[in-house]
Amino acid sequence: MNKNKVSGLLIAVMLLLMLLPMLRIDSYVKATPQRRVVFEWVNQTAKKFRVKTSYIECYFEGEQGGSLIEIKHYAVPNVDFVDDVKMAATGPDIGWTSSRWGIDISNVTVSYREIEEDLLEVNVTALNNNIKFEHIFYFTDSDVILVWYRATLLADINLTSIGAEFVPATIATSGAQVVCTDYFGNLITHTLNGSMLYIVFGNSSEGTLPLKENWMAVYNPDINAFAGIIWLDPEMFITDKSTVGVWDGAVWSVASLVSRWFEDPKGKVFPKGTTFENYLLIVVGSGSYDRIRALGELVRNINSYYQRVKISTLLEQISSLQSAYSSLQSDYNSLQTQYNTLQTEYNSLKAEFDEYKAQYTVTQAQLQQTQTTSIVIGIVIGLIIGFALGWFIKKKK
Q: In 3D, which of 205, 198, 194, 94 has the Cα closest to residue 151?
């Protein structure tokens, strides 16, 4: 579940630095003259907010866990590209629990920070049924959004599935095409017709093979626009026990990805603190799905390179640090033992010293008594000497 967390973070950062600057088109109108990536509250009490770039405008319904999103592209007016970005889990104890439905607004928090001038991070956290759902969005001045899905269990929970969903809205009408590639790299195209069926694209546990490539898109030929996703680390979710497909709804489709990590249909108990996560890029714009497929290819190449070169180097550095720490810990333990031995010896010597000190220390009263005794003895001796001397003198006479 978390085996590629480090690589995912590194890849995410590299994508932000390498991918997004390539996507700027100067002919688009800027969001503001001062800044190109802007966060603004629509209603802070209701936790509604908006993010603008030079290319897109995203409106979030915060009271629904920030999962209800309206994304509009300036190049395609009056089109809502995305309706929903959420996580959902199922299990005998929790039923169907998501980051959107059945959430009290008091359990939703929204925070944001400007990492750089044109890099904005928005974190929407929602608590629901002992699961903490987090959607961390990264915006740059482009029409690409990086989303970090993360779900943390706040108690031991029996899960049968948990995963992430991406829901195109207006463009996913009847006649629109859902496109991806099969296990052999062949293009799969499904034309939406409102059948209200779930079409499986990749699920080896149900008889089909996983997808060959790391992207999925919805293309609407009537308006020549697309919305799609690129999974940065698909192996985290697209496994032998995963489902990748589309719900062909009456007016929209759900490009969904729901993972199952266990064979038992009754579920599996995951301990408190378990975290499930994934990263993906949301890409919207005018034109066909060719652009998102090209970006997916670039992401795969970057992922492969950093897995082979950078990640192995990083792991070597971590191993070296762990070895150095182990050695330092051993040295520390040795010094601690020596210190404890010296402390014991010191305490023993101090006890002996205190005993001798108590035995041979002269108090003020003892000193005064000795002085008085000495004076008396001196007087007596003086009297005796004086008496003897007087007697001797008297005898001589």
A: 94
Beta carbons within 8 Å of 52's beta carbon, 6+ residues apart? 31, 32, 37, 38, 40, 58
DSSP secondary-structure letter at 16?
H
Alpha helical stretches, state H, the chain: 5-18, 290-305, 311-360, 364-396
Buried b (16+ CB within 10 A) or exposed e, 270-300: beeebebbbbbbbbbbeebbebbbebbeebb
pTM of this prediction?
0.70
Q: How far apart are CA 362 and CA 51, in angstroms?
A: 85
Cα 353–Cα 355–Cα 356 angle in degrees, nearest 5: 65
Q: Could you read off the pLDDT of 201-219 as tens digits, one per residue? A: 876 666 677 788 888 899 9
- Taking alpha carbons only, the member of 251, 189, 198 closest to residue 217 is 189
Domain 5-299 has CATH 2.70.98.10: yes
Whole-angstrom distance, CA of residue 244 vs CA of residue 256: 6
Q: How far is CA 150 from the centre of its chain?
A: 7
Provide the 8-state DSSP code for 307. Answer: I
Q: What mean pLDDT is predicted for residues 71-91?
A: 89
